[in-house]
Please model this.
Amino acid sequence: MSASHTLAIDAMGGDHAPQSVVAGLALAAERHPNMRYVLVGDEARLTPLLARHRRAAEKCTLAHAQTVVGPDMKVAQALRLRESSLRRAIDLVAEGQAAGAVSAGNTGAIMAIAKLVLKTVPGIDRPAIAAIGPSARGDIVMLDLGANLECDARNLVEFAIMGDAFARAVLGLTSPTLGLLNVGSEEQKGVESLRQAAELLRASFLAPQFTGFVEGHDIAAGTTDIVVSDGFSGNVALKTGEGALRLMADLLRQVFQTDLASRIGYLLARPGLERLREWLDPRRYNGAVLLGLNGVVVKSHGGTDEEGFAAAVSVAADMIDHRFDRLIRAGLEKRGHAVSASPRSAVAG
Amino acid sequence: MSASHTLAIDAMGGDHAPQSVVAGLALAAERHPNMRYVLVGDEARLTPLLARHRRAAEKCTLAHAQTVVGPDMKVAQALRLRESSLRRAIDLVAEGQAAGAVSAGNTGAIMAIAKLVLKTVPGIDRPAIAAIGPSARGDIVMLDLGANLECDARNLVEFAIMGDAFARAVLGLTSPTLGLLNVGSEEQKGVESLRQAAELLRASFLAPQFTGFVEGHDIAAGTTDIVVSDGFSGNVALKTGEGALRLMADLLRQVFQTDLASRIGYLLARPGLERLREWLDPRRYNGAVLLGLNGVVVKSHGGTDEEGFAAAVSVAADMIDHRFDRLIRAGLEKRGHAVSASPRSAVAG
Model:
């Protein structure tokens, strides 16, 4: 089993674990035949579940973990739980037995344990959370989505470097365009850290990809492939956009149930409406990635089903397949001087 | 002509001025028969335009202004243009000849001139921009939408007081619920200023209306009637939500043009789809309000048509009709001690 193509899966995290995790893993295993998996959790429960998925079982080993980090468990308590399925999965990455870990568990615990155990990549000050979302011009990458509520210019530049590597690895783009989220597109707009970050980016190797400031409406428009922001506004933007799409979907459902004519109208337009629904399906975009650590860490939505969990595993598999680790290191090398200018990254290195 | 029910209208601001302004004013005049208007701009151009709308003309006087603040004019330059239609309209409010002003012109200039000429209400540190938007549970109020990119706890509390008065005046709510926009709903979430603001609100007269922190998806869900935020994240949320709704509307349009069956499907479901479109029509929500000044100031979108401009005039008329000025003063009085604790508001008073 090649550790470089192995994913550690926390089988016990999430609302429907371990059933949806094992079923999702089985789906993902079909899509990524070159990957192997270590399923971490309660062996007695996992053995019969895995037995239902013969083909996936061939790619899987089980690793027993006695405890589970609960969904409402405080981070400090989760950190003390060293035999939890989450902790063991991330430990496997740190020990070099897996290249990444996927969990649908407690977000705060995943972030804290991953940061503690895996440490940041030399040259990265703070890890960021990234995700993929739909836009009028295809899928886009957004980061940070909440790991860092307040950011300085340097953090934003590092997010841009990580977002670039992520878009290359997962969206397969060769030169993704990049925008900084602001309240206006003019150069003088926004807060100081944003203006500084824009200046740094214009002077960096990312300059040809950097289009300047983008605004909230540019996210759904897909104006740039990557939208970089501080974690507060990124989190607000992601959830507001999701909420607006959900509102529209709910209202449409009501419209098509108004009367018989509307119901027939729905049936006639159904193929297109189904495609639209599938395209906007939140499960397709499941998988928030903690970028900037020594290893791939993907957090699945806790309430998702097997399709959603499979999508999260796919993101991790794509990052590993397309050597996200090398891409990010290449970006940091191109940045050059700034790496050595950072005392914290020197320590981390 | 009662100055307390008079609106000064900048006839020359906006992409389609003065035609769309005069036509929009005519629409609004029918909806608010108790209001009077002073139309400020180039008399030679306005006289024939107004002549087309006999009923509105009866409610209107013209006030000549020689110059116009251009859409791209720098704020400093706009401030020097003391005979502009925008400046004259706001001067009329300061002089007590009108209770409010409406303009579709340059946002930066409107804000700067309004703040300079009208000054803040005693007890308000910084004015905020508010607007009304759609949600699953009816219209909601969002503020700040960009006047203050960085805010402290006190600013946020003042936004809550102003948002409360605005929701009472314009949405007609007697006890609007209130949420603070954050990255999570738990008490310990977010940045310090938000946690402090939450604490202040829980100890204030707004406590019965304050539901705590809300997240991005709560905006479209209509979890609270008022969403208070700093101007940066409010601006990002507003534009991201609008962008997501627009994406969905564009995709739907494509779906219904796929083939003959889809076209017929559209026709069958059309009444409901049209109602949905009208309900989400951005023109219906046109009119961003600068709250916290001594006078009502409404900024219409520059690119809107007469329907949109009429909506902006309606917001101003509703604020005047329902005595927004008294509502905000009542709120500030209930806050009590905090007013006198503020050196800046003492100066403003």
In short: Residues 126-289 of chain A form a domain with the Isopropylmalate Dehydrogenase fold (CATH 3.40.718.10).
